[in-house]
Amino acid sequence: MEIKLFNTMSRKKELFKPIKKNKVGFYGCGPTVYNFAHIGNLRKYIFDDLLNRMFRYNNYEAVYVMNVTDVGHLTSDADEGEDKIKKQAEKEKKSAYDIARFYEDAFFKDTEKLNILKPETTCRATEHIDVMINLIKRIEKNGYTYSAGGNLYFDVSKFKDYGKLARLKLDDLKARVDVDKNKKNPADFVLWFTESKFKNQEMMWESKWGRGYPGWHIECSAMSMEYLGEQFDIHTGGIDHIPVHHTNEIAQAEAATGKKPWVRYWMHIEFLTSNEGKMAKSKGEFLTLNGLINKGYDALDYRYLCLNTHYRKPLMFSFEALDSAKNARERLNNKILEIRKNVDFSNASSRDYHEEFHEAINDDLNMPMALAVMWDALNDRELGDKEKYNYVIDFDKVFGLGLEELEEKTVEIPNNIQKLIDERELARKSKDWKKADKIRNDLSKKGYILKDTANGAVVEKSNI
Ligand code: AMP
Ligand code: ZN
Hints:
Elements: E1 4-7, E2 12-15, E3 23-28, H1 39-57, E4 61-68, H2 84-92, H3 96-113, E5 121-124, H4 129-141, E6 145-148, E7 151-154, H5 170-173, E8 189-194, E9 212-214, H6 216-228, E10 232-238, H7 242-257, E11 263-269, E12 272-274, E13 277-278, H8 289-294, H9 299-307, E14 315-316, H10 319-340, H11 353-362, H12 367-379, H13 385-399, H14 415-429, H15 433-445, E15 448-453, E16 456-461
Parallel strand pairs: 3-4, 3-10, 4-5, 10-11, 12-14
Antiparallel strand pairs: 1-2, 6-7, 7-8, 8-9, 12-13, 15-16
This protein binds adenosine monophosphate (AMP) and zinc ion (ZN).
Zinc ion (ZN) is lined by residues 29, 220, 245.
C-alpha cells in the first residue's frame, strides 16, 4: 500500500518513494542532555517511534538514527547565549560529562517507559568530533567558510538556496537579533568555536582552526551522513528546528557534498503547549514523565494522549485531557482482557478493519483515525471476539500500547475492605438486599467495585 507523508520542504503531502526499495533511513534530532526531557520533547520521540513502527508495519527495513547532543548547544538555537550543558554543570557543581551522561540515561529510561523502540544507532556528538572536523574541512575546501574572531563561520550568502526549507529570504534574515560582530551576514553561523567564546570550557578538542568545539548544527549533518549515507530519506524534528537548525544543516551538508537534495522528506512535529504556550525547558517549570507517574498516571496514558492528536496539530496539554486518555486506555485494556477470554468466538464483519487501519497510518500517520478504526472494530456487534483480538494486537504493533503483554489485574484487598465484602456476602445470602446494596455503595465510595457473578462477587479497583 502506498505511503503518503507531509514534506515540510514542499508543504505538501507526497507519495513516499524510498531511495532504496523497501528500505528507509531516517534521522531524528535527539535530546540535548542538560536536563530532564519535558513531555513536549517526548511527544517528538513518540512521533519518531510511530514513524518507525509504521514503516516496519509496511515491511520496510527501517534504520532510525538519533543523535545525543552532549556538547555545543547554546541557549539560543543560533550562536547566542551560554552553553546549555556547561551552564547546568556549574549549577549542579558537576563535570559537563557527568551532566550529559546523567540526563542521557534519564532520557532513555523515559523512552523505555513510553514503549519507544530503540533507534538502530544513537550517536553522541562528543564521540564524533573527527567526523565533524572532516565535514567542516570539506565545506571549507568548497569555499563556504571564513574565520573571524577565532571562530570559523559558514557564509550563508555563498549558498544559493539558503533558507529554502523555512522559505526565508536573506533580506528578511537581517532582522535576526544578532550581537556577533564577527559575522558578515546575520544568518551566518559558527562551524567551530575556539576558546574565544567561553572561558574555562571543559569540552574542547584540537583542530586546524584552534583548540575548541563544534557549533551545534554540524553534528547532525555529520552524524546523519556517517550512518545513513550522503543522501537519505527522512529527517525529523520539532517545528522550532525549521528556521535555524535544519536550515543550517541543509546548507552544511549540501555545501560539503554538492549533492541535492540532501534529504528527501522533512517531517516536523507541532508543539505540545500548555496555558503558558509552548512547553519549554527554558521556562523553568515544566512537566516530566516521572512527574506524571508520581501523580498516578502510567507513561502509556501519555502515549495514548499523543496518539489522539495528529502530529501536525498543536497538542494542548491539560490534566483533564490526560485523565480522558487514561480512562480510554483503561477501557481498552479491560476490553482486551475480556475478549481475550472469548477467542473461540469467531465471526467476520462486513468492514475490513485491517485495510482501514493500514490506510490511516499510511496517510501521513493519521493516528487519531487509526484509533477510531480500532474502537469501531471493538464495538462492532457483528465481529467475533477472536477477530477483534487479532485486529487489536496487530494494530498495536504501531500504537505500541503493550496490549499483548497485558496482565490480569490482581487487586490487593485490605483487611477492613475484605470484612465489608464478607458482611455483604452474608447479607446477600440472607436476602437482606437493602444492607447488601448499602455495603456495595460504601465500597464503591472507597474505590472498590463489586460485580456479582455466578461464582460470587468479583472486586475491581476504580480510579478514585
Ligand atoms: P532539545 O532537547 O531541546 O534539543 O529538544 C528535543 C526535541 O524536542 C526537538 O526536536 C524539539 O524540536 C522538540 N521540542 C521542544 N519543545 C517541544 C514542545 N513543546 N513540543 C514538541 N516538541 C518539542
Ligand atoms: Zn539536529
